[in-house]
Amino acid sequence: MRRFFLLLEAAIFVAGYRCALWLLPFRLLNKPPRISRRRTATPARLAWAIAAAAARIPRSTCLVRALAARRLLARHGYPSTLHLGVARAPDGLDAHAWLECQGAILLGAPALDHYTPLPARPGDQYS
Fold it and tell me: Cβ contacts of residue 40 below 8 Å, gap of 6+?
């Protein structure tokens, strides 16, 4: 039953960020979440929940997954860092978002070899 509620919580965050990215500017969605004191699941388990929920929600991009995971991790007591990067593509630029938690890449790792991280501007909450 605990697994079901974790998956439901992840689905709510993924769907919420998916819709929010249509309606709100990124700077409003990129505010760092408040870190909870409770730790009821491991970061790997939370990443699994985000990946499982995102697989069932259309157009859940790497940015949607990373934002949702950052919020879910904070809710379960884990700070994380959102990273954004770009790479050259045949038709212009390709962008990617990934999430780091406890010194390890939690989401978005397989494609990192090709991306150059964007530097954070003053006031930005990603690195």
Answer: 76
